[in-house]
Write a structure and sequence with these properties.
The complex is a heterodimer of chains A (368) and B (408).
Chain A lengths: L7 H12 L22 H11 L63 H10 L8 H9 L2 H9 L7 H14 L6 H4 L4 H11 L18 E2 L8 H4 L1 H14 L14 H4 L8 E2 L21 H9 L19 H12 L33
Chain B lengths: L7 H16 L11 H11 L20 H11 L12 H4 L46 H10 L8 H9 L2 H11 L6 H12 L8 H6 L8 H11 L18 E2 L8 H4 L1 H13 L4 H6 L7 H4 L8 E2 L21 H9 L27 H12 L22 H10 L1
Antiparallel strand pairs in B: 1-2
Helix pairs in contact in B: 1-2, 3-8, 5-8, 10-16, 15-16
Classes of the chains: A mainly alpha (368), B mainly alpha (408).
């Protein structure tokens, strides 16, 4: 696997290093292993952290990134469906942002395949997400003296849209898994048995491979639709606005999430979603693109049954015939992929934001 | 009123103004108060006199029907036609605030403040162009511009149209009015415009007086009218049926001091410069609203705004594009000083200040008479109960969703 991030070369080397140890069964898949460390610019990341938790980055100053990407939930959404922007709901479960800097494709449908800079713009400006006119955002930031200082200290000059789109990704690099039993080599006997099943009988590694435990490719696993997307008009309006904007044909009558079809508009991609990473699952329930599965044992049960029902379902899925104990071992392994919670002030901006925008003194005399 | 009472110099000035307007190549079609006919009239005989207000012009491609007007009325009051479903047209154009907003700056989208005064909807149907700088050519274009502007409605077409699709009451009404299976957002603006064309006031004391009821104005108001047409020179711009020539002038209104005292207002001020395409240097140094400049980016247009109608102004305080005057007395004093406020402040673009604006030398009694006459431009307050809002309902039943799931 080649992960195209800025540190791609280092990552590739690390991946190859781990690859030496591949087992016979999983030889054709990049092996699972520890994530490489990313080099982080401290001042830029600190700025990104303050931005991430700041409600002034949304149109009506009602929500921040952290309203959908909750630190205690491994920066995924609390509920099955994300809350979305005030005035509407949402139609998917916000993905965990832990290790997001290690990916090369983003969103459940994979519609951003460039970089986190574009992803940041997408999240801030989309009307059903944060609905922010970034020109207003820029001027808000310029009205906050601490931001003026932080942007300068980070080497960005004055606050600008472009720098926001760099600083937030820099912060996201700090959200990298750390301290999991899997990475530390302290897995229980059960988890170790689970890992063997993962790579062998259960076949998880077919898609969940590499250091992220994801091939970052779209697959249809037949996850059932979350009817709350359609039965709650608040969620449905977000879904409808999104599919309209994506150019999905007959979007008003659509009764399912088209997934990767958004991107290609090719029939065979209907209902495909990008394989999620399996790290930090301990915190990020519920699971799947629409939060339809509440626990890890139910997830394992779902795959043991060969996945869900969809004529477009991946051929890789078939009933696994795992015993109850084998399923328990698999769950133990999945839990061992979770590390320390990233909820300390090192990761979370815990200082208050100003209640008002301070006035710029001598306004008529100074340059805007 | 007689045209002959106007001083000859005034006529010359007015003609010059018309020429300027022609040079600016302003087109004012589609209005009963058309610029073309006005110019023709003025060239011969000075500004067109005040006149009773006729029926508003109805665009041939958006005819009035009762069902369309009723739909437009509901949409006008519906906050779901905005970004976070909290700001509709009526949010900044409240019927009990003169169909405007009773603060200097319009309230703006949550988390923001606007930077201009919200104008009344009453008689907006007569303008050939809307907004203070005339940036849109019709009410059909004004509505989306307001609903989508970052410091106004901050909505986007896709989410607003999706909301309409999920409201059965709207699906039914849009189908009846526009014949479409699903509500289209463009039709929402058309319906709102049709509703707004019903919000006209044609029975003011002034209209009655001009139509022959000589008791409709008090003696004091009649004296004020003479000043309006003569010594005070108001008629130079506030003329015709609408009491507006719909042209653009810099009359010397000073910047709102809120930009020096309010951080949120400073945010919006810079945003507007940025969004409306100032040059880098213009963005850095501009400290007052350039107004009509944004239309053609001509430096001589900085600080110009469209002459507003004087109709319904009894209910629309505060006044001016930035709402800095809270009473009509303040407005008259401002003009009497030749376009200066009580602190001697004037426009930041003084080089563009209209030559029509000069000290008037009005006595206290004359000012009172003028203010009394200005009240004759307003009839009864036009209030309206907010209509019941049709509610969201799921588009599909659970059974339909289950059937679709089975077919996957």
């Amino acid at each position: 696997m080649v992960v195209r991030v800025s540190t791609g070369r280092a990552l590739l080397a690390a991946t190859l290093g781990v690859g030496m140890a591949v087992t016979a069964q999983a030889a054709s898949y990049p092996d699972i292993g520890p994530l490489p460390q990313l080099k982080v610019d401290k001042a830029k990341a600190e700025l990104g952290k303050r931005l991430f938790f700041d409600v002034r980055l949304s149109g009506d100053a009602g929500i921040s990134c952290a309203d959908c990407h909750v630190p205690e939930k491994a920066y995924a959404s609390k509920e099955a469906l994300s809350p979305g922007y005030p005035g509407n709901g949402h139609f998917r479960n916000a993905s965990s942002l832990v290790n997001t800097a290690h990916k090369n494709i983003w969103n459940w449908d994979g519609r951003i395949g460039t970089n986190l800079n574009d992803m940041t713009r997408e999240m801030i400006t989309e009307d059903y997400i944060m609905n922010m006119d970034m020109r207003i955002m820029q001027e808000r930031l310029k009205q906050d003296p601490l931001y003026v200082k932080m942007f300068k200290d980070a080497g960005y000059g004055e606050p600008s849209n472009g720098s926001v789109r760099k600083a937030i990704p820099e912060y996201l690099k700090t959200l990298t898994s750390t301290g999991s039993p899997f990475d530390k080599g302290t897995m229980s006997a059960s988890a170790k048995r689970g890992m063997k099943l993962f790579k062998g009988k259960a076949g998880c590694i077919q898609c969940h491979n590499g250091p992220l435990l994801s091939d970052l490719k779209p697959h249809n696993t037949g996850v059932p639709e979350n009817f709350d997307v359609f039965l709650d008009p608040m969620n449905h309006q977000a879904f409808m606005a999104f599919t309209m904007f994506q150019g999905v044909p007959d979007y008003r009558n659509l009764k399912r999430d088209p997934g990767y079809f958004n991107v290609t508009l090719e029939k065979q991609d209907m209902g495909k979603f990008i394989t999620p990473s399996l790290r930090e699952l301990k915190y990020s329930a519920p699971y799947m693109h629409n939060g339809m599965i509440k626990t890890l044992s139910e997830v394992v049960g779902f795959y043991n049954a060969g996945g869900g029902k969809d004529r477009n379902k991946s051929k890789k899925l078939k009933p696994l015939g795992l015993s109850a104990n084998e399923q328990k071992d698999l769950v133990a392994f999945l839990e061992a992929l979770s590390g320390d919670p990233l909820t300390s002030p090192k990761y979370v901006w815990d200082q208050p934001y100003p209640a008002e925008y301070p006035v710029i003194e001598n306004w008529t005399q100074v340059r805007n | 009123m007689s045209i002959k009472k106007i001083a000859p110099t005034l006529v010359a000035v007015a003609v010059a103004t018309v020429l300027t307007a022609c040079q600016a190549q302003e087109t004012k079609t589609g209005s009963a108060v058309s610029g073309k006919s006005m110019a023709a009239k003025t060239a011969q005989s000075g500004p067109p006199p005040l006149a009773p207000l006729g029926a508003p012009p109805i665009p041939p491609d958006n005819k009035q029907t009762p069902a369309k007007i009723e739909l437009g009325k509901i949409l006008f009051f519906d906050p779901r036609l905005g970004g976070d479903a909290s700001t509709g047209c009526s949010t900044c154009h409240e019927p009990d605030q003169g169909w405007a907003w009773a603060e200097d700056f319009s309230r703006g989208y949550p988390g923001t403040v606007h930077w201009r005064n919200s104008q009344t909807i009453i008689n907006s149907a007569y303008y050939a162009r809307n907004f203070w700088a005339g940036s849109v050519p019709s009410l059909e274009k004004q509505a989306p511009s307001a609903a989508k502007g970052g410091v106004a409605g901050n909505g986007e077409n896709d989410i607003m149209e999706s909301r309409l699709a999920l409201i059965p009451g709207y699906r039914k009404r849009f189908k009846e009015v526009f014949g479409t299976e699903w509500p289209l957002i463009g039709d929402a603006w058309r319906a709102i415009a049709a509703f707004e064309r019903t919000l006209v006031q044609r029975d003011t004391p002034l209209d009655k007086y001009l139509l022959g009821d000589k008791n409709a104005l008090t003696e004091q108001q009649v004296q004020g009218m003479a000043l309006f047409n003569g010594k005070a020179g108001c008629i130079q711009c506030h003329n015709g049926e609408l009491a507006s020539d719909q042209d653009y002038y810099n009359i010397g209104v000073p910047p709102n001091k809120r930009w020096e005292e309010d951080g949120l207002a400073q945010v919006t001020f810079r945003f507007e410069l940025y969004a409306k395409g100032m040059t880098e240097e213009g963005y850095r140094t501009t400290k007052a609203d350039p107004g009509f400049y944004f239309r053609g980016k001509n430096t001589w247009d900085k600080g110009k705004f469209r002459t507003p109608s004087l109709r319904y102004t009894a209910f629309t305080a505060p006044y001016m594009h930035n709402g800095i005057f809270y009473t009509m007395e303040d407005v008259v004093d401002f003009y009497n000083r030749g376009g200066f406020d009580e602190d001697g402040r004037t426009t930041a673009f003084a080089e563009n200040k209209s030559k029509l604006i000069k000290p008037l030398g009005l006595t206290d009694e004359e000012k009172e008479n003028l203010v009394a006459f200005l009240e004759a431009f307003s009839g009864e307050e036009m209030l309206m109960e907010k209509p019941a809002m049709p509610e969201y309902a799921p588009l599909f039943t659970r059974a339909e969703l289950e059937a679709a799931q089975e077919e996957k």
